[in-house]
Amino acid sequence: MKLFVNKSLFRLSSGGWFVVVCVLVLFVLSHLGRSWVRGWSAEQAAMYAEKRSDAGQFPERLVGLSPSNVETLFALGLGDKVVGVNRYTSYPAAAADLPKIGGMVDVDFEQMLILKPDYVVLLESQRSLVQKFEEIGIKTLSVNHESVEGIVSSFSEIAKLCGNEERAAAICDEIREHIERVRESVEGRGRPRVLICIHHSTDVSQPEQIIVCGSGGYHRELLEIAGGVNAYDGPVAFPKLSRENLINLNPDIIIDLVNKKVVNERSRDELKGLWNVYGELDAVKNRRVVIADGAEHFLPGPRFLKTLDVFSEGIHGVKVERKSTILKHFEEGDIE
Amino acid sequence: MKGNVKIWCLIILALVTVFVTPWLGERSIGFDVLARPFTMGVDDLDAVIFWQIRVPRLLLAFLAGVGLSLGGVVFQAMFRNALATPFTLGVAGGASFGVALWVQLGLSFSILGIGGISLAAMGGAVFSILLLYGLVRASGKSSPMTMLLGGVAISFFFSSLIMLLQYLMDIGDSFRVIHWLMGDIGRANLDSVLQVFPFVASGGLIVMYLRRELNLLSVSDEIAASRGVNVDGVRVVLFFAVSLMVAGIITVCGPIGFVGIMAPHMCRLVFGANHRVLVPTSLIFGGVFLTWCDTLARTVSVSSEIPVGIVTALLGGPFFLWLLFKHGERH
Q1: What CATH number should be reported for the domain whose range is A62-178?
Q2: Which of residues 166-205 of B touch A (CB under 8 A)?
Q3: Is B45 within 8 Å of A128 when comparing Cβ atoms?
Q4: Nearest-angstrom CA–CA distance, B198 and B204
Q5: ipTM metric
Q6: Which residue of A has its CA nearest to B49?
Q7: CB atoms within 10 A of CB B216
Q8: Residue B312: which CATH number?
Q9: Residue B43 in domain
Q10: CATH fold match for the domains A62-178 and A190-300
């Protein structure tokens, strides 16, 4: 290619050669510097680990870096040990008043150090933050809240760290048992195609900017447990659908998850009525649009059974009674 | 004010910035931390905050400011257009796409100690320039305006590709990319400072060396050629220098806008358009400006930090407008 080949370009003056040598030296020096820094950081991290691993002692100060983790900590009865929470935490009320140390991806590391947590509990999707925590000597525990099994095992993982495994075992049993009962109750029924809408604009006369559950997240699994199949079966985690996409998918049922704030502004009937514009859809024709409100439907934490109940009731009209146990109390705001 | 006095003022401002900003923050820290840079214990919170959070941030913000500002100076001179920056010309877009693609593919390797992610950014930056240059050469239309418009189109093209990648990513990677797109100086550490340093220093060195050529290029290619400048060669070298700087910065800090367009213009208004002065002054001013923006970003809000890109635009915008309308006519 003649584009950049210009012989005179390679005829460098002595100053030019000096610059080239400097550039090379800079990269070599930086490489050596980085190796040294990494070695030093590793030593530092080892020293932190040694000092903090007081054998047999459970952490006394915890930070939940996502709303679902904060809820999990409180459900496990560790609320009094939580010293900092995610900015978007709103439940339980006691957690909402605690110091906020950041959002999902932005963390005030200085504030974090001042709070002196023994452990920070975060989501696996926040893994890009782990390295910095390690550098400043804060231990982390990552849990996976992207699947039902991940949510269930997050209780035991956190409990193992904090020494209240009995309670965690009770919670896990409660969840597994309830899931099994829902599964049994919908067995043998048809499996309608359901679209779970997690966001659409509500300040206009029809649902626009519709974002639905796709291949990602735990909603899809909940849907299958509740006896439905996801009407969207493409590869995108949370796809945005146009009217034409909706017509092609033509779901039998639409479950519209909305925040409490939206329901405060517009009634449920009004929200349901918005979908009437899409009268060509079977779900709308057959009046199978379900509005489910509440922040818990967006949080893969201890209240996710409520979402499962909404799904099974919306799809098959089945209402599986919850036993009055730990999570039930937690959902009702009764926190020990 | 005389030129020399202004330059001394800028140098003093830079020194003040470097020595004062690490002391600013929610927690007040005593001067005794200076004595224990690499020996802090686990309970020595002050030293950890100072040496592991604030100092690396200061250094990284300063370096990023220097590089972005220099990128702006070079492109504005080469294209003879006030709007030319690595961002408007698609270089930053290409580098960002390289990083996003890297995250999406989940690769991990390094060559000669340079991380694969930096190489991906560099590759993206160089690819965008090759694309632009190739189009310009193929069409025979090489006016700065055509190149600028071509660059803008390439920039949009890459931002769409980034959006597409992000749409297809899983939540974890998507978080990582969003975080980084917001301009991510918050996770700075000594390693990231040393990672960016050779890129910015090399680019800076090359630009400093070619100050005379920049002066001539900013007038016209013909004049530069008549004075013995190998116009094409110098252009390629300068493009390479800017790609180096932008790729190094974008890999670690994400695309931080506005510094590249504003810092050079502010310096041009204050110090004049001679690149012998403009290059070093914009270099220092870019660093000072971004450092203060980052200091504000981390101190203003209590519960968390504002992305630095928001501060650069909020703080710089009105100041720039004031300078422009008060003194702009003269230039």
Answers
A1: 3.40.50.1980
A2: 167-172, 174-176, 178-179, 182, 186-187, 189-191, 194-195, 197-198, 201-202, 205
A3: no
A4: 10
A5: 0.77
A6: A110
A7: 22
A8: 1.10.3470.10
A9: no
A10: yes
